[in-house]
Amino acid sequence: MMLIVWRELLKKHENEVAAVITEPIMTNSGVILPEEGYLKEVRRLCDEYGVLLIIDEVKTGFNAAPSAAFSLYNIEPDLVTFGKVVGGGTPLAAFGGKREFMEEILPLGGAIHFGTYNANPLCVAAGLTALKEIFTSNTYSEMCKLNDQLYKGVKDAVEDLKIKAAVVKVGNMGSIFFGLDELPRNFREAFKCDKFMWYRYWINMINRGVIPYGGAWFEEWFVSAMHTKEDIEITIEKTVDTFKVLKNVNC
Ligand SMILES: Cc1ncc(COP(=O)(O)O)c(C=O)c1O
């Protein structure tokens, strides 16, 4: 369905569209995984219509996958943007891509990309240290193992307590969509989730000492390098306690 819309839009606006910018996995909607072949077809359509494909890895990079999450789907974007993890806790963002496009930037090309904080030495040092010394492949696989455990705990709690919710995970991230039987395939489907139930869940978890997510239904959880097995066990225990309350409250 979405691909038909893309195709029609690109055809209708042929020679007017400069770029398609998309996350490889939607994350400002809870985690929504792309359907089989979706990104490959987006790549193909961009090639057909001479449009740049820019992949936004601000949230997914070094979280949904050990590097850029587009690598999970066998596509090559023209440009990629990163943020968050890339700065190792300091405010840093980065972009990169194919030589022919990066060479368009000054001093090799004519496009200006100046800024007060560009290549800020403190942030670049923190980012490099985080990526080279903290974010090792061992650390990432540990985070993913903990996330598997968390996902299983949440999913088991949903099933055992008969909570109407769909649960998803990828890499070190995951989401719960209350009120849905199936995982959403796009924002419109995700938006049908039971947001009131989500806020009850969030407040109940916080009252039990666990911040399970950012503060909105359209965020997700992340397991970090600092989390321990014990943190995951506590989170699962508090999730079960919370679900028991949600079940008994007439929302
Ligand atoms: C997916 C995504 N892309 C881009 C941005 C914007 O990043 P920045 O604040 O570095 O401009 C955000 C902000 O959180 C985001 O979630």
Into how many domains do the coordinates divide?
2
Bound molecule types: pyridoxal-5'-phosphate
Task: Please give the radius of gyration in angstroms.
Answer: 20 Å
Number of helical stretches of at least 4 residues: 8
What structural class results from the helix and strand content? Answer: alpha/beta
Helix content: 40-55%
Q: Strand order, main sheet: write it out.
A: 1-2-3-4
Cα end-to-end separation? 34 Å
Oligomeric grouping of the chains: single chain
Describe the protein's architecture and organization:
The chain has 2 domains: 2-134, Type I PLP-dependent aspartate aminotransferase-like (Major domain) (Aspartate Aminotransferase, domain 2, 3-Layer(aba) Sandwich); 137-248, Aspartate Aminotransferase, domain 1. It is built from 8 helices and 7 strands. The longest helix is centred in the middle third of the chain and has 24 residues, at 137-160. It has a 4-stranded mixed β-sheet with strand order 1-2-3-4. The chain is 41% helix and 12% strand. Pyridoxal-5'-phosphate binds next to loops.
Features:
2 domains, 251 residues, single chain, binds pyridoxal-5'-phosphate, globular, Aspartate Aminotransferase, domain 2, 4-stranded mixed β-sheet, 8 helices, Aspartate Aminotransferase, domain 1, 7 strands, alpha/beta, 3-stranded antiparallel β-sheet
Task: Please write out the topology.
Blueprint: H1 2-12, E1 19-22, H2 38-49, E2 52-56, E3 79-82, E4 94-97, H3 99-102, H4 121-134, H5 137-160, E5 165-170, E6 173-178, H6 187-191, H7 195-207, E7 221-222, H8 229-248
Parallel strand pairs: 1-2, 2-3
Antiparallel strand pairs: 3-4, 5-6, 6-7
Helix pairs in contact: 1-2, 5-8, 7-8
Pyridoxal-5'-phosphate (PLP) is lined by residues 23, 27-28, 56, 58-59, 83, 93.
